[in-house]
Design goal:
153 residues, mainly alpha, 3 domains, 6 helices
Length: 153
Amino acid sequence: MTPEETKRQESLGGVYAFAAYFLWGFMPLYFILLAPIGPWEIVVWRILFSLVFCAILLTVTRTWPKLIAILRDRRLVFWTIVAGLLIYVNWQVFLLGILTGHVIEGSLGYFINPIVTVLLGVLVLGEKLRTAQWVAIAFAALAVVVIIVAYGS
């Protein structure tokens, strides 16, 4: 890849990231509109649409054989089920929080999660962070403290 293509890809990645976070910020408003159907049904529809999307993606990318190989390995199936259950609990708790008026608390959980994930990577997996990454973690942690203090007062 040429330097120009690399720069274009990086710029495009930034645009995609901004769009994703922008849409994510409005998601609680969308879920509040769906409140009459309830959080359980919202998650079921999300699971079904995700299944259809993944099936289409597997077909377009012609990667069904890789999925079949995973399904033949009991250990991988077990850990995939565990991951799926954790994601289910994550979504259910987030939706229950939003639909019961705890948007700030639910959003704060999503804000804290990456910080905890990075710290687990450092402590458990021995990942090494550069100085700039530590500074970013410090800013994120400071933002969490500011939100907690501001919300608590």
